[in-house]
Write a structure and sequence with these properties.
This protein is an alpha/beta fold. It has 13 helices and ten strands. Strands 1, 2, 3, 4, 5, 6, 7, 8, 9 and 10 form a ten-stranded mixed β-sheet that branches. The longest helix has 22 residues, at 293-314. The two termini are 35 Å apart. The model is unreliable at 1-20 (pLDDT under 50).
Amino acid sequence: MKYLSCLLVGAAVIAPHAMAQPYPDKSKTIKMVVPFAPGTATDVNSRDFAQLLSDVLKQPVVVDNKLGGEGSVAAQALVSAPADGYTILYTSSSLPVVEPLLKKNLPYSPTRDFAPICTVSLTRFVLNITGDSPYKSPADVIAAAKANPGKLTYAYSTGTTRVAAELFARGSGIQLTGVPYKSGITALTEVAGGQVDMMIIDHVTALPFIQSGKIRALTTFAPKRIKALPEVPSSVEAGVPGEVKVWFGVFGSAKTPPAVLAQMRQAVELAMKKPEMASMLEKRGLEPMAICGESMTKFLAEEVDIYRAVLKKAGIEPQ
């Protein structure tokens, strides 16, 4: 898989003399802004990675959750902070790729305001329903939705979770009604309580709910079963459409001096090479995905083109 190899820009290591330069100043704390709530996949992964990055830099890296606007508040926090390398953004692909295609008047532009540093990992989406729901398979959901067009509801908390549900619906020839939420945790809580019928979201966020029995996973949108949910059939097995891959990555402000961005990139690359990184990915059931610097910039453009075509085919217009 081409995403598993990191295409490096600059030196592969941070030499001792480079670390002695003005950046990073050991007396300062690096703030890692996260656009989603505690307990979500982005938050959990950011905290794991912040510790690895802190170990590399030998200084504190603190996660700062900035909620609201489906990521816009966090994006603005990065853009409005001093462009000195002490504020970085850890986000899912929803913020830089999908949201700009769904909203006409965003207060930020990923291509103008963000400096890609590295992607870190990849997760898969899971179709989840209420724990005591009568539906036992995706086929049951599809049959019920065809019998009652628009009656079944799905929760979404980001552009990606919305797109995933719409792809599943349109690919299955059914009509579902979307219900927006500010947080994936809140949305899953509503699914668990039966207020909403289903949600397609990453397995990391859903896993505690699945393990408690509050919700049930019907399929994983992946070519094969994933280690975190070995008992759940893949979408290929279940014969359902709508595969959406979500990755996590690190961004700086586009106004940050290139030398500072290069040093941060080197630190991120080193953090991804630490043995603890593999353990972290294994623990969370994530796949490694390391694409850095200019290669990440090119990858982002490709992702936007792919999602633009997907949204056009699905008939989803920006609002």
